[in-house]
Specification:
Low-confidence stretches: none
Order of helices and strands: HEHEEEHEEHEEEHHEEEEE
Number of helices: 6
Oligomer: single chain
Number of strands: 14
Strand content: 25-35%
Structural class: alpha+beta
Shape: globular
Radius of gyration: 19 Å
Distance between the termini: 33 Å
Helix content: 25-40%
Largest sheet: 6 strands, antiparallel
């Protein structure tokens, strides 16, 4: 598995040689930005819409992108779209946020993925779909809807945070982890002692999708008040 430092160097090389990175997300956005600033490399940030999870760093020109509406006979869920992309071995850094509103689904890819996507993404699960190219500006005004919650936890261990979100004990949270029902940044995580970093995305099966916004303050009893945004 590639180390974080190797990934950062790879993305800096993308900036230097190609003028842009692929889609970055989570802590990698902050880490690459910090590395570029330390090296005095000027860059700009492209967002599909304000508050999107995935971003592209570029120097002069925004890379070629294509936005598709996923036409289907029924509303699609975020996780089944994501699962279909992974089933086709599509790497997560070539596509942006999956956007669902008004029961319509949209996804943006790096331009070189056009032919591959049109040839391979014809089904989501057992549902036939068609990709219809739409203007990137269609998503410009989109905003994620979420509810902000605050919790008091003894630490930012994953099992502690999940237990608070689920309003249950750590044992049940750990059982969820062992069952593979929890994803962090869209990858299954089973280690209860994993610690959360600002911007991490949690998906808890049959509970919902959440963004960890970090520690707000320490309480008088040396516990942590944290902010969790729940997507709706």
């Amino acid at each position: 598995m590639e180390s974080v430092s190797i990934k950062i160097e790879h993305y800096i090389e993308c900036i230097n040689q190609k003028g842009a990175t692929p889609f970055l997300e989570g802590q990698m956005i902050d880490q690459v930005a910090s590395a570029l600033e330390k090296r005095g490399i000027s860059y700009q940030v492209y967002e599909l819409f304000e508050g999107c999870e995935k971003k592209i760093f570029y120097t002069d020109l925004i890379p070629d992108l294509v936005c598709y509406q996923i036409k289907s006979a029924r509303p699609l869920r975020h996780q089944e779209i994501l699962g279909s992309l992974f089933a086709h071995q599509i790497e997560r850094n070539v596509f942006g946020d999956i956007v669902i509103f008004n029961e319509q689904s949209y996804i943006t890819f790096l331009g070189h993925m056009r032919s591959y996507c049109l040839a391979h993404i014809t089904m989501i699960g057992t549902t036939p779909v068609a990709l219809i190219e739409v203007p990137l500006t269609l998503l410009a005004g989109y905003q994620y809807q979420y509810v902000t919650n605050f919790y008091i936890v003894p630490s930012v261990r994953l099992d502690n945070v999940v237990a608070k979100i689920m309003n249950t004990g750590r044992g049940q949270a750990q059982a969820k982890l062992k069952a593979g029902d929890i994803r962090m940044n869209y990858e299954v995580v089973t280690k209860a002692s994993s610690t959360l970093q600002r911007g991490d995305i949690l998906s808890i099966r049959r509970v919902g999708k959440f963004r960890y916004q970090g520690i707000i303050k320490m309480t008088k009893k040396d516990r942590y008040q944290i902010q969790i945004d729940q997507f709706i």
